[in-house]
Specification:
about 525 residues; alpha+beta; Rhopdopsin 7-helix transmembrane proteins; 3 domains; three-stranded antiparallel sheet; 14 helices; 16 strands; about 45% helix; GPCR_3_C; G-protein coupled receptor; transmembrane; signal; receptor
């Protein structure tokens, strides 16, 4: 019975036994054997005083059937006697042929007749029907059973057909032989039933035992993200993938995580690169225009030297955005922050000095006020480079103590490895950004206070508008930077750099280029004095 259950891979079976010593013994042994391959759905004993009606109710009805079991004329008694006689003959033959020192006993001694039983236990021969006759260690004959199938024909008659055999004397692993094509299953589909409590868990899932139920009854739980189960079936636990690996969608294999960074081949990288180069070219074009028309009143009236320096710093601002694109390295991580910090301080310093010059120029027009001699061209250049030197000193200290470095970040997005630059020192990075913000706020405040001064082409108003755009962009940048995942974090930073640079370039220089290129008749001293 156990071999048949193993053959059909049944793991969820019920057991009915007679309520006597034989039944109790069989139930106990069957239960122990079943623990190794499955579970008992139920086990019941039938009382020895059970009525025929109840017994027939439990097994499909036998009343009125004509089966081979009702005919005792073809019993196996004669065949058993035949095997017993031959077994005794083989034992006597072995006894008579025994030589000294070759007996079946421990001391290899010669045997006497009353020890014939020991020879019977060692009998092992093939009879004329080709069947092996032998006994086990307990002296019992090796079991051989015909496996029969009750088959129902079209007339409703039950026929018993032999569909296999169990021969304990056969070769190991070949004891059970079944003819599945000859079997009859009384089910709608006519197929062998699947007797299981729970279907096997497929790869990518794990078994979860149901509380209070047998171990054969379980649920299949999908492995969590980053975990896999690679066994064919019924994994009891999921395995965690290593750091640089992640589970595939089926949770059956660990695959290498996708490495992500903002590259020049990426569509977003191409767009930002195009904007950066466009801003660079535009700054160079404006610088070329101002150099070519450097002797005209518009360029002279707006402090041409500071304008040239401002356009150079804006060009550097556009170029520094390119350092944020591409695979991070030790060099690019340091270069991107240094270029960003210095170029923006140089830009804002020029705007700040231009604002101071506008205010002083208006004050200098009052009688007896000679303030401009204390803030001439040399002082203006010195002020710009002094502000820039402070930022350079911050960068030097930052890079010498705890410089930025590339890292492989897999914490924010589990399925990807984000290549990014770690700032190294939060204090250094904060000082760099804080210094830029401080200069921008001072510049915005001074320009706002001087917005109504009658300076040439309302320079203070242009500066106020440019600083308003600058501050708005970087204030908006902070929450967008924090909430953006992966390469989008760097993209937001680049966009902030480009947006603020374009804001300054267009706000301050677009009105001047308009006069120089499209309204040359207004580019004269009389027109400027009239304003």
């Amino acid at each position: 019975m156990m071999e048949i259950i193993k053959y059909f891979k049944w793991t969820w079976v019920g057991l009915i036994a007679s309520d006597n010593d034989y039944g109790q013994y069989a139930m106990r042994n069957f239960n122990e054997e079943m623990k190794a391959i499955g579970c008992l759905a139920f086990s019941e004993t039938i009382p020895k005083i059970m009525t025929k009606e109840n017994l027939l109710r439990i097994v499909k009805s036998l009343e009125g059937t004509d089966t081979a079991y009702s005919d005792v004329s073809n019993s196996q008694i004669s065949y058993n006697i035949y095997k017993a006689v031959y077994s005794l003959a083989h034992a006597l033959h072995n006894l008579m042929a025994c030589e000294h020192g070759k007996g079946p006993f421990e001391n290899k001694s010669y045997v006497i007749l009353f020890q014939l039983l020991q020879y019977l236990k060692n009998v092992d021969f093939i009879n004329q029907l080709g069947e092996r006759v032998a006994f086990d260690e307990n002296g019992d004959a090796l079991a051989i059973y015909d496996i029969v199938n009750w088959q129902l024909d079209k007339n409703g008659t039950v026929n018993i057909k032999t569909i296999g055999v169990f021969d304990k004397a056969a070769i190991f692993g070949k004891e059970l032989y079944l003819q599945e094509n000859s079997m009859f299953w009384k089910f709608d589909n006519g197929r062998c039933p699947q007797s299981i409590c729970s279907a096997s868990c497929l790869p990518g899932t794990r078994k979860a035992i149901r509380k209070g139920q047998p171990v054969c009854c379980f649920d299949c739980i999908p492995c969590a993200n980053g975990e896999i189960s690679m066994q064919n079936a019924d994994s009891i636990e999921c395995l965690q993938c290593f750091d640089d690996y992640w589970s595939n969608p089926e949770k059956t294999w660990c695959v290498l995580k996708e490495v992500e960074f903002l590259s020049y081949e990426d569509s977003m990288g191409i767009a930002l690169t195009t904007l950066s180069l466009s801003g660079t070219c535009l700054s160079i074009c404006v610088l070329t225009i101002f150099i070519y028309y450097r002797n005209t009143p518009v360029v002279k009236a707006n402090n041409s030297e500071l304008s040239f320096l401002l356009l150079i710093s804006l060009t550097l601002c556009f170029v520094c955005a390119l350092c944020f694109i591409g695979k991070p390295s030790h060099v690019t991580c340091m270069l991107r922050h240094v270029m960003f910090g210095i170029s923006f301080v140089l830009c804002i310093s020029c705007i700040l000095v231009k604002t101071i010059v506008v205010i002083m120029a208006f004050k200098a027009t009052l009688p007896g006020n000679n303030i401009m001699k204390w803030f001439g061209a040399a002082h203006q250049r010195g002020t710009v480079f002094f502000f820039t030197f402070i930022q350079s000193l911050i960068c030097i200290i930052w890079l010498s103590t705890a410089p930025p470095f590339p890292v492989r970040n897999s914490k924010n997005i589990n399925t990807k490895i984000i290549l990014e630059c770690e700032i190294g020192s939060l204090t250094g990075f904060s000082c760099l950004l804080g210094y830029v913000g401080l200069l921008a706020c001072i510049c915005f405040l001074l320009a706002f206070l001087a917005r109504n001064l009658p300076d040439t082409f309302n320079e203070a108003r242009f500066i106020t508008f440019s600083m308003l755009i600058f501050c708005a962009v970087w204030i908006t940048f902070i929450p967008a930077y924090i909430s953006s995942p992966g390469k989008y974090t760097v993209a937001v930073e680049i966009f902030a750099i480009l947006a603020s640079s374009f804001g300054v370039l267009l706000s301050i220089f677009a009105p001047k280029c308009y006069i120089i290129l499209l309204k040359p008749e207004e580019n004269n001293k009389r027109a400027l004095m009239g304003r």
